[in-house]
Amino acid sequence: MTDNLVQLLPDAIANQIAAGEVIQRPASVVKELVENAVDAGADEINLIVKDAGKTLIQVTDNGCGMSETDARMSLERHATSKLRTAEDLFTLHTMGFRGEALASIVAIAQVEMKTRRATDELGTRLVIEGSEVITQEPAAAPPGTSLSVRNLFYNVPARRNFLKSDSVELRHIREEYIRIALAHPSIRFDLHVNDRLDLSLTAGNLRQRIIAVFGKKYRDLLVPIEEATDVLSIGGYVGKPEAARKSKVGQFFFINDRYIRSSYLHHAVTMAYDELLSKDSYPFYVIFLEIDPARIDVNVHPTKQEIKFEDERLIYNYLKATIRHGLGRASIMPTIDFEADNPFSPSRTSLQPNVSPLDSDEALPSKMNRETPHTPSGGSEAGRHASNLRNWEKLYDNLSVEVDTDTGEVLQSRMGREDENDSPPAQGRAPYQLHQRYIVSAIKSGWLLVDQQAAHERILYENFLTTLREKPAASQASLFPQTLDLAHADADLMSSLLPELNQLGFDLEAFGGGSFIVRGIPAELAGRNNELELLEKLLQQYKNNLDLSSDGHERLARTLARTAAIKRGTALDDTEMRSLIDRLFACGQPRVAPNGKRCYVKYELEEVERLFQGQ
Known about the structure:
CATH superfamily of the largest domain: Histidine kinase-like ATPase, C-terminal domain
CATH architecture of the largest domain: 2-Layer Sandwich
GO biological process, one term: mismatch repair
Protein name: DNA mismatch repair protein MutL
InterPro entries: DNA_mismatch_repair_CS, DNA_mismatch_repair_MutL, DNA_mismatch_S5_2-like, HATPase_C_sf, MutL/Mlh/PMS, MutL/Mlh/Pms-like, MutL_C, MutL_C_dimsub
Strand content: 15-25%
Organism: Neolewinella litorea
Number of domains: 3
Mean pLDDT: 78
Helix content: 25-40%
Number of helices: 17
CATH class of the largest domain: Alpha Beta
GO molecular function, one term: ATP hydrolysis activity
Structural class: alpha+beta
Strand order of the largest sheet: 5-4-3-6-2-1-7-8
Radius of gyration: 29 Å
């Protein structure tokens, strides 16, 4: 008889396995501890972070505190004060409930807890390492709880090695902290990073909290929305069209004060703006939905950021109508016909839940083809154009380029240097633009098809990189100085980039309080770019590429080149096209853009001739 193979895992190992789902990075620890502080009734929460949370994460609150027994029990798996029966899952009004967070954290870190209830003379101090309690003793402590998490993943080195750079991990921490701060504007939140105050949010109302987080410019860009029915209540703010961005930032949904992600509800918001926004813009919104907990299921994922709705189509239509109503009241939408796609009228003082918006298929978001903006008349032509380009590329197989996607350098090419002598500037024939995306330029042996955006990115990248490493660039002064207002986290990053930006030709100066004075931009970029929009896009793209392996100068040069380059759809005259091609072939590496994309494709007349001969 063989020995039995199945056995129970030790608690320490089981907790480490569970931690893999609950604690994915330092930001996960911040989320769990700060949400516990909110549930404890605190009105002041202080977060201290060192080395992006890898060395220390400390959360201190003035909440209800815990008894000695509760403090010890809180470290056990599935120990919670929020649930007693399975039915309690459907009446939840707290952030936490699973009883896994603290047990997961103490399994992979060195933790110290100090806690005291206001009615107790002494508090309790606990020291835990790898799920093992090292110390438990009475201790003097203020009312509330303080949890210090040191050396996260110290006993799981493989997990620690998967963490990103400090700047990336810190960005995730700020995002989690801001989400909770937006959900609870009546609580004061302070964030200290490496012994420096990074973010201080005083208690106030939601509008004040949004402005404090995202900057003073939002003071005039917020549109309030509010509607109450027997099914749900909707409140919060959406941004005016001018608050929209080209990236997916500034979009927050809260269900019963819990942050969630929902592409389905995001679609409802987008549709509410109708044709006010271009299809590549994303609206700003901070929206709160209050709904009976029995109508939703938050126990879908350990992070609790995914929720199932009993009837999500109903919520979709209520949300869309409420936002349209709010935009209409703000005189942003010229005409609003709520009856056109909803069989209920939000123009009344209250939506009528007894009249179901589901009775008409036209209201259903599953009919998204009815909601999606119409394709421009040139859409079919663009499709044919794309098809033609794919076929054209088959004509040319000699340009085989292997590119390092990090540096943009060519590793291998079958196109010899002698081909570069057959360059467009030497031909004298006027180039022409194809669909305002490509430039066709004749050469002796055929023609080149140049991607205008990729080519301009290569030109700007090399210019910016040279400027950063050698000499300051010329600046074009603005007619009137402008003020750039940024959220605290963005202002901190912008301040760190100021020396390089000034070297590049930006006349930019910190003004305090997250504000910067913009007096000029690089002469290279003058005329085609709005100063404030350029800097905001630059900052967002730089944040998105913080984990790239390239050095700071290369990353900034690449980011600015991508941000400032002429885009597809931009009309160019003959002089501009000639200049672009001349400057491209003057580059050290004209074949590829910094992201590795081809700048041009060469077509040989011999290949075309063979096609006409049927060979």
